[in-house]
Amino acid sequence: MHLDARGRTTIRRWPAAIAILLAAFILAGPLRAAAPQDTARASIADGSAEFVAAETPNYGSQVQPIFDRRCIACHGCLGSPCNVKLDSYRGVDRGGFGENPYSTRLTADPRTDMDAAQTTAEWRERGFYPILARTESAQTNLDDSILFRMIEAGMRNNGPGFSRASVDPFRLQRFAATCPSTAEALAARLQEHPGLGMPFGLPALAEEDFAILRDWIALGSPGPTEAEEARAQEVGNPTAVAAWEAFFNGSDPRQALVSRFIFEHVFLATIVLEDSPGDRFRLVRSRTPPPQVVEDGQGGRRVESTPIDLISTALPYGDPGTERFWYRLEKLTAAPVQKSFFVWRLAPDDIARLSDLFLSPDWAADADLDPPWDIGNPFRVFAAIPAEARYRFLLENAEVIIGGITYGPVCNGQIATYAVKDQFWVFFLDPEHDVSVRDPSLGLDGWDLFMDRSLVGNAEYLEAYAKTRARLDPDGWSLDAIWDGDGENRNAWLTILRHETNVSVLRGAQGGMPQTFWLMGYSGLERLYYDTVASFEYWAGDGRKLETLLFFNMLRQEFEDGFLGLLPRQERERIRHQWTRGIGSVALSLIPFETADQPTRVDIRGPDPLLDLVEQIAQRLGPRISGLPDRLNPRVKPERAVDAPVKDFDDWEVAVSMLTAVQGQRFVPEMPSVLVLRLNRAEGPPQDRHRVYSLVANRVYKSQYTLMFQNGQALPDEDTLSLYPTLVNGFPNLFIDLDLADASRFLTDLRAIQGKDDWNRFASRYGILRDSTRFWPFYDWINRWNVENRGDAAGWLDLSYYDAPET
Length: 807
Fold this sequence. Notes:
Blueprint: E1 2-3, E2 9-10, H1 16-27, H2 59-70, H3 72-75, H4 89-94, H5 120-125, H6 138-143, H7 146-157, H8 168-172, H9 183-192, H10 207-218, H11 226-233, H12 238-248, H13 255-266, E3 270-273, E4 281-286, E5 292-295, E6 301-304, E7 326-331, E8 343-346, H14 350-359, H15 378-381, H16 387-396, H17 398-406, E9 423-428, H18 435-438, H19 455-472, E10 494-499, E11 502-507, E12 516-520, H20 522-534, H21 542-564, H22 569-579, H23 584-590, H24 609-621, H25 623-626, H26 649-656, E13 674-680, E14 690-698, H27 710-713, E15 720-724, E16 734-739, H28 743-751, H29 756-766, E17 767-768, H30 775-790
Parallel strand pairs: 3-8, 9-12, 13-16
Antiparallel strand pairs: 1-2, 4-7, 5-6, 9-10, 10-11, 13-14, 14-15, 16-17
Helix pairs in contact: 2-10, 7-9, 7-10, 16-17, 20-21
């Protein structure tokens, strides 16, 4: 083991089995589309410019709303197809990039997040090409615009009933294909594959939307004026922003390290201030100071602010490059996309809470308040901050911290999600019982081992943890060792869901009894966060990403083993091998079972030890934390026939609960990951005529230890269905619009599915397919419902995997 230039552990000790796995992964090689041909430019429809209006459409009020409604569903996140990001004018103007940063490759690519460059000229230097043309000729602007050629191709070919199957192979290549960088090359590609027009694989734009975009592109595609941009940056309550920036830049000599700790843990989060409603922010580092509140001379006060001069580093702990900088709240104006959107909500009294949490405890007199930069080891960097304060911050905001893992830059996680199971519940150690809080160094003489991502280093860390626990808790843990959220905080019990290439996090016990559980303490949670978020280099080559994945697997095993340590000793090995089977049994032999011989003070009496333990935890934490009982996914089913008449919403929920959280149902393996269902009734007040549900398939696999574990690792007889009375996840796979009158037959037909052909017929009958004229109206409705019912947690839904292959 040695440290690289950033102070992070590099790996020299992977066992042969993992080295072979790595080699097999790399040698598989990237799949690349053929290079674009350099053909003569073919003019678009003759006379296109003749229909262009005399007045240029306004970008903010006319153009961007179209991009929001129809384009950011696939082009609103890091890793969008061809890296075209259409959620802001900056993104449109920067254009596209030939290769996706998530494509399979050995070497690193340039960063493509919007902070990597500040001007269009800088993006051009990085290899980005324009998708717009700006000349004196309207026709030339249309002919030379990649954006226009794509939407025009969609208008030609994506009418009702277009071929859905013809574009499916291209969906599977979204991380492999290169992208045409000129209008001429694109014309050749479209001539060969006319179905590639935009919106890709979805119905074409409405004529009026197409006309607005055509006119805007033809007339030079201008962006917002300076006055419009200034208005967009105005905040509802500048005083609230000033108060928070004053806290983050406080005069206490310890505050700089506290703010650095907070920043590194929430830099991806969207911040919502309770007393500045309607605004969204992010915490950034700036070369310019925070605003000043000054007297206006008339008995009032005003806020004088300076523009943010953003400091952008590849990783959040990167050297800011200047001796003096400030933490600022930057207002976000781009429309949020659900897949990368998670919120940190702050109320005015949270300033006092955070001050008390971090600054009230005694700090060591010799504490290092100015540790070096570029070190991805939070245990070393933040050693001066009392460990309990650090851990309580993570606990009280656990959904946000885990949100960085599940909703971060990796919008489509690909193999990164293979390390976790489809549904599990997470619990946390109480700070008073967590040995990594009581003895933060775990008896070691340094901090390097905490972030050593090798098998040997991980084993040494687990050994140190076990020895410390045996010394501090020789009799083992009781139920009191599980954090109860102080009776109020629902972050104490989290539900994690994996949906093929993406992951969701929910508070409380949701979706029915899962197969596995995690128990995490401070050091484990911090290791997980820095492995998958703070130190994750999305632009890196495959070797670096595989290292992250393998360490993630070791961490998952640590957390599963932590939970097993609460059970009777004689039950642990059996359940551990039940949770990891097949080729994973080999991996189990390589990762120490750290809690195998740990004593336990939990009294398990029932015939099912896992069920008995979870019921005891639920009783200890209480219904406010757990949210139990779960009437939509009950373990004990109601006495009702599934095919009984459904007269109202209550009947529906009772009927469908007969199918949830039950193994062995043939229809579940055939389902896509997430169905979004609108259930309608004809009578009643307008606000109560619809209910929205998410039907989520929980798939079970023998092991999480192979890159291609779906192939031969699936256990379809153990799959289950979960039902949620809201939108879950940002990637719906199919919309279903169902009337109550048809609900009983819907459930009967669902139960009758025996294979893929049955599912396809079911989806065609009940689903809104991609070529349907009902698609966009329903998509618009569900996004409005999302905003109206989920408020500042709502973002635009992604359509990358809608009615199409997921894997």
